[in-house]
Each structure stands twice: as structure tokens, then as C-alpha cells.
Amino acid sequence: MIKKQLIMEKALELFAKQGFEATSVQQITEHCGISKGAFYLSFKSKDELILELINHFMTQFTSDIDYLVKNEENTEELLYKFYYSTFYSFHQHSDFAKILMKEQMRSLNEEFIIKMRYYDQSMEKVILSMVERLYGEEISHTKYDLIYCIKGFMKTYSELFLFYNLPLDLNLLAQSLVEKTNLLARHITIPFISQELIQLFQQPMNEEESREQILEIMDQKIMELGDSIEKESLILLKQQILEPTLSPAIVKGLQENIRNHPHCKWISYLLRSYFEF
Q1: Do both 75 and 156 map to the same domain?
Q2: Enclosing domain of residue 22
Q3: Are residues 64 and 187 in the same domain?
């Protein structure tokens, strides 16, 4: 696990300087001070390494934003905290966010495209739950347009400080985007993106597929984790999926036990949706 993390960290340094395509496995191993054999014990290929990096960043980012949206009690502060946390995360992981944006614009790798679309759809669900909570029936016909406006703000404004090195005032940026979003929510009258249009390019997962995916990830994490409260909590949560016996309060407490563990953020996100917390 330590060597795998080292490879990911050192590879990210090279990817930030040279991009994915221009960086070879040989360069990565030299930068890590390891052999090619050691590299291939951790990753089958450079593509697998890249996808692992994407998973590492996107699962933590999506899970953290999802938790914020679902647990922020002060509705008046929710949109501000959403934008602040989003751009703070981009700023903290600016090297990876930068190369990820560049690769999205030019990548022809099908697995990369599918992976990014999956996380994109996950973020759309988080934003949808937020705008429905904030604006309710007021935006019932325009909420999908509003989602894409918010996603546009996230992408466009992040590019300003990632690629143009503009000074970043997170407080001012979040306040400005809150004002813009509220104006759009109140005044959009001609929707373009309907629920039917959304369904055309989304790939819904049925309940059984979702359940099996969650159980598979849980088994993987249970094997990876040493004896800990997180491992015990995952075992109990798995039993709850297979045969529900616990109260919602206990299930929520078990969820809290795993939420902040760096290797459990994505399964925590999936379980919040599964148990509808």
C-alpha cells in the first residue's frame, strides 16, 4: 500500500509537468527510485495508474461535497459553502485538477471518458439535491438548466486560477457565484434541458446492479483495512444490506465511523445514497 501511494504521488508530479501521454513508465520508476517490476506489482499499466489517480481524487471530492450538501442544516449558507468547498478542493489539488481538465479536452481513451462521465453524473445528482432543497417547486421546470449553469461556473472559474494564475479570494468568489446562481434560479423562464433529455444521455443503474456494486466495493475495502473501527463498521453495514436489522440511527452512526477514512470516502458516498441519508 505504501509503495502504491509513493508511485501515485511521484507520477502525479511528472504528469503535472509533462501530461499523461508524454510521461513514460520508465520515467515514473526512475522518479520513484524503483524497478519496473515493482511498478507492475502495483499497476498493470500506466492507464491503470491514471485511472487510480482519477478515482482517488474524484471519490474524495464527490464524497466530501455530497456530505456537505446532505448535512448542512443552515440552508442560507448551503450554496456559499458548496462553492467555497468546491474551489478550495480544486486549489488544494491544483496540480491534478489542472492535468485532469487538459486530458478531458483531448483524451480519446474510452475508459477515461466513461470514468469521467460516471463522476460527472454523480456530481449532477449532488447538485440536483442541493437546488431542489434550496428552491423547491420554484425551479421544477428549470432545475436541470440550473444544474448545468452551476457546473459551468465550477469549470470556468476554476480555469481562471488553475491556468491563468489569478489571485484567489475564495470568500469573494463564493459570494459572487451565490448571487449569480440565485439570480438564475429566480429568472430562468425558458428551459432547454428537460428530464427526458437528461435520461437520453445518462446511464441509469438499476437497484440490483447498484446493490451488487456496493457489496463488491465493501468486500474489497474490508480486505484492505486492518483491524479498526472502520473495518468493523463496514462489516456491520454489509450485513445491514444483506439482512436489515439495525435502526436508522445506528446505520447513520456506522456511516460516520467510515466517512473520514481516506480509503472509505467513495463507499461512504454510495452508502449514503443506498440508505437514503
Answers
A1: yes
A2: 1-43
A3: yes
Total tally of structural domains belonging to the chain: 3
How many angstroms separate the CA atoms of 256 and 37, rounded? 39
Looking at the structure, tell me whether residues 74 and 173 fall in a common domain. Answer: yes
Tell me: do 4 and 80 sit in the same domain. no
State which residues of the chain have pLDDT below 50.
1, 206
Grid look-up 429568472 returns 187
- Give 184-210 pLDDT, tens digit per residue: 999 999 989 877 777 666 655 545 557
